[in-house]
Automatic annotation (TrEMBL):
Superkingdom in the source lineage: Bacteria
Protein's UniProt name: Dehydrogenase
Keywords from the named record: NADP, Oxidoreductase
Pfam families: ADH_N (PF08240), ADH_zinc_N (PF00107)
Example of a GO cellular component annotation carried by this entry: cytosol
Residues in the signal sequence: none
Keyword match Oxidoreductase: yes
Amino acid sequence: MKAITYQKQQDQFRLDELAVPRLQTDYDVLIKVYAVGLNPVDAKVNLWHAMVEQMDDQFVGGLDVSGEICAVGSKVTGWKVGDRVLYHGNMRRHHGGFAEYALQDARTLVTHPAVDPVQAAATPCAGWTAYRALVDKLNIAERKNLFVAGGAGGVGGFAIQLARYFGIDTIVATASAANHDYLRSLGATHPLDYRQSNLLERVLQVAGPEGMEASLDAVGGANAALAADVLGYEGHMVELVDTINGQAFSDAFGKGLSFHQLSLGSGHVNGEHGRNTIVQAGKAFSSLLEAGQIICPRLQVIELSDIGDALMEMRQQRTVGKIVATISG
């Protein structure tokens, strides 16, 4: 089969010909890949490859997969050959979706939503993360406003749409000025240029004297401090990129701030409860996608052979919307 492999010594991606993988556990299924979404975490494998045991030059990444089951392990229940499925994969495993066939633990599959494979594959990492951040962590339905650092990216774009769906009155999101119309189209009420010098002041002008109730940092770096500083008394923040250090933020203790870490894929290695967090987010988000409440705007479609170049470009953190590669189907 054709696959995009990663060579860690050279830090490069390569189009290769590999054998179709065999089932490795009794819970595995073999998936014929229809489409696979590209995400920043895929591009940054150079930063986390040590998490993968015995990684070699035949390692295949690709976490967000739309496909069809071709074979099932002996302990797989509820799924059969021919079922169309969607999933967010385990980055610690070798046989991801940047290939014609992939392996996945059946306990984290969801039924494929009634949308085309490209639309579906654009959603798991970014969409399910946004759902877990806003619903499971921020209890967004009870908030009046939300600040999103990185509104034009995959997670940020879905978070804005979810906030709009849950009836949030004020949605402040950062992006370059060129993407402000895009943010408005998703539901942002106040797009702001992340490069302006008085960004914190501008956010607080919008929020009013009580500050923001909730914030989401989907970028990392200095944005973590910004996402914390815009919060008012007992505000809540979700951090997706870095490990939170509350002591580094201005008066975090005095304001009684609450900080939440979120790593969607960590559910794979935290038992039944962890796996269920992935599945439940996937089911809920897919329902919104099927109902047209969530869309995948600015969707760029590429071929398998283009994945390597696209991943290297993603490291520049300038991707707007989502990139999906079509594989088969």
